[in-house]
Amino acid sequence: MLSQRPLHWLVRILAAGFSVTPAGAQPSEPYRDNLPAEHPAIAYAVGVFDDPVSRLAEAVASDRVTLVHDDRFGYLPSLLEHLDVSVDTQALVFSKTSLQAPLISPRSPRAIYFSDAVAVGAVQGSPVIELVAFDPRRGAVFYTLDSARTERPEFDRPGRCLQCHQQAATLGVPGPYIGSVSTSATGRADFRLGTVVTDHRTPFDERWGGWYVTGTHGAQPHRGNAVARDPATPAGLADPINQNLTSLTRFIDPDRFLVPTSDLVALMTFEHQTQMINLLTRIGWEARLADHDGILDAKETDARRLGVEEIARYMLFADEAPLVEPVQGVSSFTDTFPTRGPRDSQDRSLRDFDLRTRLFRYPLSFMIYSDLFDGLPDGVRRGVYGRLRDGLEGRADGEVILAIVRETKAGLPESWLPR
C-alpha cells in the first residue's frame, strides 16, 4: 500500500532557468516541451502500476515480505536485496542537486544504486530513502520509503518529484538523469562552467562534475572528485590529483557506505541507461498522445520517424564518445554486470564490456531486454526494430550482434530472422 503524504519539507527546486545542455545537443537545438502527464492517454498518477517498487510495496503491506532494519544502514541493505540491486553499482554524488540538498555535501554524498528496472538513492541522516522504478507505460515512477524503524515501513509516491524530474534534462517526461556540474567546497552547484546532462555521447572531459569517481582512465581527464576551494575559480577543471583514484579516503570515510567505491564503469553504464529510459519514455508517450487524440497527420508521422531514428542511433551507440585509453573500475561491477542478463550459446552477451575504445563489446543497448522497450506501442517498437536491423547490416560486428539477440530475445520480428 502506498500513502500519499506530501513532502513539502523535502522539495528544493533547482534555480529556475539555469542552463542545462543535454549530451550531444547542439547549442541551438530547442529543448522538447514537457508532455502532459495527466493526459488520459498517459494517466501517470492513477491506475495500476507495474514496476518493482509498487510490487514490493504491496508485498510489504500484505506481510508477504519483511524489510529488515539494519543498525548501521537502516532499511537500505534489505531494500536492495528485495529489489535485486547489487551494492557494487554504488555511485556517490556530492553536488547539492537533489531534493535532499541540505543533507548532501562532499563529506556526506548521496549514494545511488541501480539495476535495469530500478534505482535507489540514500543520504545519511535522511528520514527517507528515494527510489525510482520504470513502468512499461509510464516510464520513471518516483517513490520514497520512510527510514525510521517500524513494524511495517511505508512507501510513498510524492508527485512533486516531477518538478525536478520532468524537464529539459529528462526530455520532457518523468525520468532520471546524471548531471555534471561544478560545485563549491560545500557541494553547492556553481553554474559558471555550465551543466551537462551526460550519457555515452558526452566527451570524457565533461563528465561527473559533482560526483566521486573511482577507477583508472589514463590521461583522459574527467570533472569528478573536484570542488572549488577558491570561490573565484570554478571546480571541474582537470587536476591530476583528482584523476585515476582508486580510493576515496581523502574525501570520505568509506566505512559509512555499503561499499568504498563510486565505480567508473558503473557510472558509465548508468549514464547510458538513464537517457535510454528517457528516449523510450518520450517516444512512447508521444505515440499514445497522438493516437488518443487522432493526430495522424504528416507532421506527426515525420516526428515519429525521427524519434525512431534517434532511438535506434542511441541503442547502437552511433554517436558514442570514443575512449582514447582503456578504463578500469575498482569494484566487482565489471564482473557482475555481465552475469545479470541473457547469454547466447557461445557465451556472448550485450552486457559484455569492452572498456578499451568503447563501453560495450557488442554495441547494441542491453535495454532492448527491458520492460520499457517491450512496452512501446506496437507500431513504434516495430519501427525501432526495423531501424536497428538496417543499422546492423554491413557493420563488421553486425552479424555477431544479430546472432546474440536472436538467441536471447523473445518476440523478434521476422525481419530479424536469418535470411
Report, as a whole number of angstroms, the end-to-end distance.
Answer: 50 Å
Largest sheet: 7 strands, mixed
Number of contiguous helices: 9
- The Rg value, from CA coordinates, equals 21 Å
* E-strand count: 10
By secondary-structure content and strand pairing, the structural class works out as alpha+beta
Report the portion of residues in β strands.
Answer: 5-15%
**Helix and strand run:** EEHHEEEEEEHEEHHHHHH
Stretches with pLDDT under 50, minimum 5 residues: 1-30
Residue-averaged pLDDT, rounded?
A: 88
The percent range for helix content is 10-25%
Shape: globular
The order of strands across the largest sheet is 1-8-7-6-5-4-3
Short description:
The protein is α+β, with helices and mostly antiparallel strands and 419 residues long. It has helices spanning 52-61, 76-83, 162-165, 264-293, 298-315, 333-336, 371-374, 378-392, 398-408; strands at residues 2-3, 20-22, 91-93, 110-114, 118-122, 128-135, 139-146, 155-156, 179-183, 189-197. It has a domain at 282-416.
Helices, strands, pairings?
Elements: E1 2-3, E2 20-22, H1 52-61, H2 76-83, E3 91-93, E4 110-114, E5 118-122, E6 128-135, E7 139-146, E8 155-156, H3 162-165, E9 179-183, E10 189-197, H4 264-293, H5 298-315, H6 333-336, H7 371-374, H8 378-392, H9 398-408
Parallel strand pairs: 1-8, 2-10
Antiparallel strand pairs: 3-4, 4-5, 5-6, 6-7, 7-8, 9-10
